[in-house]
Every structure is written in C-alpha cells, then in structure tokens.
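hey
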C-alpha cells in the first residue's frame, strides 16, 4: 500500500505540474485577470490548496483501489483518461484561452470522476468518499468555467 501511495502521489502531483507548465500565468495572467469572473470565484491561493488536498485524497483512493478493485485494466483506463482531462484543461483554458473547450473538458472530467465513485462504490465501500473533494471542487470549477463562458 505504501509504495502504491507514493507512486500515485508522484503521478498525481506530476499531473498538476504538467498542467501548471501550460497555464501561461494561470490565475495571475492578464487574460484571466481581465475575464468577467463569477462572484463566487475564490482567491488564487485557494486553487493551489484545493488541488493539493484533492491529489492527496485521490492518491489514497487509487492506492486503496489497487488492492481492492478486481478489474485493474478498467481502473487504469479510467485513471489514464482522468489524467489526460485533468492535465489538458489548463492549457486549453489558460494558454489557448478556449473557454468553451475548457468547459467541455471539465464537464467530461467531472462526469468521469463521478462515474468512478459510482462504479467502485461496491468494491471500495466508504473509500470512494476520498473522491468527494475532487468532485466538489470540479463542480465549483465547472461553474466558474461556465460563468466565464456566458459572461465573456
């Protein structure tokens, strides 16, 4: 379990690093600063803190899932698609400034993580609750992305 946890921590934080490489300044960029943002947009530091907590929980989830889920191939396929959506949203939204494509990606990512919760509920029991921070944040982020699309 410990080795798997370390492996998923490295993979998940690498995903955050990759996403950050292609943000073109991210939340402090002039493009993002000039967007009409939702009134419920949190301060910039909340994004980093939230993603840190999410990736910690998600790493624990995946480490447990490796021990308990029977169909490992399906688990890794879902994890891989999640990884691509997660990493792909940052450059789509921040670098290419494509709010609509960003919204599509984050909707797909949200649906996929909700699917993970539902699909593995029986095999993992309460351990699927480790996905809740991810899902809650994705719902918030999706609402921010959708507001930016409508308001800009």
């Amino acid at each position: 379990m410990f080795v798997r946890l370390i492996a998923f921590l490295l993979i998940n934080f690498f995903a955050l690093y990759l996403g950050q490489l292609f943000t073109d300044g991210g939340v402090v960029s002039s493009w993002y600063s000039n967007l009409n943002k939702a009134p419920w947009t949190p301060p910039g530091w909340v994004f980093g803190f939230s993603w840190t907590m999410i990736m910690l929980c998600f790493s624990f989830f995946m480490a447990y899932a490796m021990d308990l889920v029977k169909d490992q191939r399906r688990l890794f396929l879902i994890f891989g698609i999640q990884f691509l959506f997660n990493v792909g949203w940052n450059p789509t939204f921040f670098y290419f400034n494509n709010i609509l494509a960003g919204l599509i990606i984050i909707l797909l990512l949200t649906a996929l993580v909700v699917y993970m919760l539902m699909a593995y509920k029986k095999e993992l029991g309460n351990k699927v609750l480790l996905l809740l921070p991810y899902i809650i944040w994705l719902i918030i982020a999706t609402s921010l992305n959708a507001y930016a699309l409508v308001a800009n």
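Residues 99-124 form the longest helix (26 residues). The mean pLDDT is 94.
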